[in-house]
Structures are given as structure tokens and as C-alpha cells.
Amino acid sequence: MHTHSLSADGQVLTLTAPDGATSRFHAIWLRDNAWDATTRAPGNGQRLIALRDIPADLSIAKADMGDALDLEFSTGERIGYDPAWLMRHSYDTAAKPAPGHLGAGQTTWDAALMDALPTADFKAVHSHSTTLRDWLAAVRRFGFAKLTGGPPEPEALLQVAALFGYIRETNYGRYFEVRTEVNPTNLAYTGLGLQAHTDNPYRDPVPTLQILYCLENSATGGENMVVDGFKAAQKLRDEDPHAFKLLSSHCASFEYAGEAGVRLTARRPMIELAADGALQAIRFNNRSAAAITDVPFDDMAGYYAAYRRFGDIIDDPAMEVTFKLQPGESFIVDNTRVLHARKGYSGAGHRWLQGCYADKDGLLSTLAALEHGAAAQ
Ligand code: FE2
Prior knowledge:
The chain is built from 9 helices and 20 strands. It is α+β, with helices and mostly antiparallel strands and 377 residues long. A hairpin with a 7-residue loop joins strand 13 (252-256) and strand 14 (264-268).
């Protein structure tokens, strides 16, 4: 049984759970977060009121605990609350963690992940919702996962995106071919090795997911490699907090103008933090870095030192997970977190991948719905 107490002015309700956990709630917050049928539409759960409908000086006149917590507000409204829901949505927490912390459900990794690559079978994720759920959860946790055993057929990557959401079309098309070209419009289409990078930092918003699907890979070399950008950012923060601050508090600039009619530019930090300091996005791409002009003169030398050190951490083989895709195999990366690269490859044999972008909100939505469905069973 939950217990409660009310402050003398009726502005703050304190709730204590059966396990002894205690949390305070403001009257205004409680009224705004009511779940009764006059506040939330019963069908879709959308809020029916706006903040302007709640008096700024609202207080709680009376509170009674039965099966539900029944509150009577100074407006005369009486509303019942589920105390367990309130405790799950507590905001009365201790000090916030230091900048550079991870979001819920995320785990950082390095080269050791190679021993246990997050992988699922193409047919299994299409036919078993629990396999799909676990594979999507691996993408949420690691920002990266592989699929094996798919058809070595053009456009099969579209079936991967359809597992959880929608393609994000760009000037490169719905999807793009990654193989050697004689006159490449992008260095990705040559046999050169590429430094680990996130894709398209010159877009705003940046594509949040990338899928790369292998159709042929008989060339020598050409392995794929991924690096956890959040791990790299935390390493930089731990060894040099000032360097971390420089890269997270100043915007870098990125641009792409490699084809007629396209001039994409974006101005965002290389290490982007949420308002509470959580790691939000990594942008790192030497090919599309533009002139950086948003760092004050007195900080520019330090900024370049921080940029160099961040690159050294990213290039450290101890951070790399490397694998060679076979035809019909693919991988997905969270392009706001995980950098990818490929080793150089020779002209002998063929290497042909198809790539596309998709959006992470769709993936997380599908995952949450699968998890919610499982919880409801
Ligand atoms: Fe790329």
C-alpha cells in the first residue's frame, strides 16, 4: 500500500511506495499528467487540455488513498491516479550524472564485441517476432547489428528497412550502389580505404540509421569495420575533460557539393549532448568536414588538438570491430552513434554493396511496440 502526505500549502504531494521509495510531485504536474477521460482521449491517449486550462496557482485541497490516489484540486476537480504509475514517472531524483552519459538501454563496446557480434538470421527476423524484437534491441543497445542468410539479390536491403520502418530517400536515391566507379561522385564509390566516419553529417537532420547490404564480395580486402562513437567520446572525456568540452560545445561545419544541383551544409558539434548532458550524436567525417568557423580564436588550437585526439581514439585498433560481409549479409548502424569504415580493396574480384538510410524513431517505435505486446501477453 502506498502512503502519502500533503504540504501545508497544497502545492506538493509526497508519495511513499510499499518498498519505501519516496517521491515528491507538484500539484501543477499532477493535474497536467492526469489520465482521466477529460484530460486524455480514451482511444488514443492524446492530451485534451492545454496548460492554459490549468490555473497557475493550482493547489491540492484534499488527498485520499484507496485503490487509487484520489485528489481534489483547488478548482474543485476530483481525479484518481494510479500510484504505481506515478512512482514509475518520478522526477524527484538525485543529482544528474556528468555530461557524456549514456541513454537508457545503451551499452558501450570495443574490439571485444567481435567475439559476440550482435547477429540474427534474415529469415528468422522476418518470421519470428521475438527474434526481430531481440535484434532491434541489440541495435538500441549497441547501435549496430548484423543480419546473415539473406538473399544475395538487389533491393533485398529494402526488406531489412521494412522490418521496422521506412526508407529515408536522399539525393543519392532510395538506395545507392557502393562499388568501384570510374568517375566517382563520392569517394565511397572507389577502392580506397575510408577512415571510420558517420554518414552525411552535412544533412540536418542527419540520417539516423544506415543499412549496408552485400551482394558480391570476392575482392581482396574490403572488410567492414565499426567503432562505437559513444565509447570514443567517453574515453576522450575521461582522459581530457576540456577536450571533450571543446568538441561538445562548439559547432563544426560539414558540406557536400559533389554533384550538380546539390549544396548541403550543416553546423553541428562533433559530439552532441542533450540538454541534460546525455550523449546524443557523434558527427565525424573527414571527407565532408568544412572550414570550422564557430570556435573562438583563443580556443581553435585546443579544438584542433581535441579533434586530433578524438580521431586517434577512433582509429585505435582496440576500438574496432571488423568483419567481412558475405553475399546476402548486411549490417545496420545507428548513424548518430556508430562510425563505420571499410578497408581498402583491390581491383581483383568484385565488391558490390547496396546502402540505404532509414530513421531510428521508427525502429525504436517498432521495438517498443513488440516489447509492449510481449508485456501484455
Ligand atoms: Fe559511409
